[in-house]
Structures are given as C-alpha cells and as structure tokens.
Amino acid sequence: MRIAITGAHGQLGQAVMAALADQHDLAPLGHGQLELADPATADQIAATGAEVVIHAAAYTNVDGCARDPLLAYRVNGLGTRYVALGCRRINAALVYISTNEVFAGDGRRPYFEDDPTGPINPYGQSKLAGEQAVRELWPRHFIVRVAWLFGGERNFVRTVLRLAANSPAGGLRMVADEIGSPTYAPDVAAGLARLITTDYYGTYHFVNDGMCSRYEFAAEILRRAGIDTPLHPIRLRDFQRDSTPPPYTPLANVAGAALGITFRPWQEALEAYLARLRREASLP
User: Fold this and answer.
1) φ, ψ for residue 64 (rounded to 5)?
2) Catalytic annotation present for 123
C-alpha cells in the first residue's frame, strides 16, 4: 500500500517507518513538509495519493500546551481536522495517534477503549478535539491511544539515564503517585502494521502490558541499566510544572487483543530498548 506518515521524524514516526518500509510505499511527512495548523494540510494529505494515512504528528510538549492552549488546539485539534478532510478526499483510511491524557485519571482500573473521556489539561483536551474531528468527519478511521512512549532520542528512559549520570549527592526524586502504561514505540509500530491490514475501524489502546508509577519505572530503568543511584519517591503535588498530568491512566488493550494484536510486558520492552542503547554505545 501507499502510506503517508505525518510526524515521520518523531519518536513513533521513525518506528513506524522502520516497521513498514520493507512492504509498503511510504510518503514521509515531517515538520518541514507539513504545517498542521494550516488548512492547506488537507490539500497536502490529498496530494500524497495514499491509501492509508498514519497521523503521528502532534504538539506533544504537555507543559508548552499548558502555556499556550490555543496553539495546542490549532495543531492537535484543527490540524487533525485538516488531515481527516484530506483523507476523505482520497478515500484513505486514517490512523490517528492519540493519548492516555484524554482521560481524567480518577479511575480505579485501567481504562477501556470506550470509557468516558475527561481530560484535565490542555494537551489532553487538544488531543480529544482531534479524536472528535476524526469521528465527525471520516468513518474509515482507527484512533490509537498510546502512553508514556519510549524508544527514540527524547523520552523518560533517556531522561532518567541522563539524570543518573549527573546525579546530585542525595540521588534522584521521582513521582510515585502518577500511574500509567510505559510503551515501546517499535511495539506500537508493529501493532499498527497489523491493524492497517484490517477494516476493523474504531478506537484502540496500544500499550505494553502492565502498569507502574513513574518512580517504579525509573527504578526498573536504573536496575536494568546497572546504575546504583539513590532514588526517592515524591508526590505529584511536590513536582512543580505548568501542566497537570492525570494521576491514574493505565490503558487496557481490549479491542486490539480481540484481533490478536497483543503487547509484551513493559519490562521486557524496556530491556529491548536498553539492549539497543548498549549496541549504539549510549550505555556501557
């Protein structure tokens, strides 16, 4: 198939490119080719002649979104509307990458795909606006929510490793009451490669199996990397930032699993990523 990929140079976009390159004709669209907030995005999407469009591009700086909610809405909300209109013009299936932050984070179990949303910050609100635009404008869609992505050049795993390499005398502090689903970008890409061969349109949660706090995630990163750095738990309220993250947003992969698309435990995915970093000499 001919597949257009927005955000092709981002963390997930690069993983998708690698997963699809051998079997499909790809049309990568990076930030230099596409300005999402511009209505001309619809024309550019249509011009690709794609059979499938994977819309991975977004304004993902959650603190930046909190500082400028209008920009977040223009890029993630209106921008996705333009992508959906472009897909409608050429009858292309649309894969919209969304986020765990469309949920309020006040539940007591992992969120199912059809659970009510209720974002509590501008990033989540802007991504939900994108979901609503996709559902309103184009029935041939897959909305795929991901969470706590790692696998590229900038992510929580690399941040923890960088902080540990320059750790203050007292060690590191990590939030212990924000719970989510760590997710390896290449695993998501492999799932997308299977999903786009179906016509089971709808909403999906593509995350690695299991859940943990940021503190537990950091502890596992340090343990598997063989780094002996003191780690101290703190609470969300003690970590000052512009955005307010939802405290509990593990995602349950129910719809994907029904199609046979399942994901390994996040700990195994983390080990695979650390092994890759070792091969690339980013880790000893």
Assistant:
1) -65, -40
2) yes
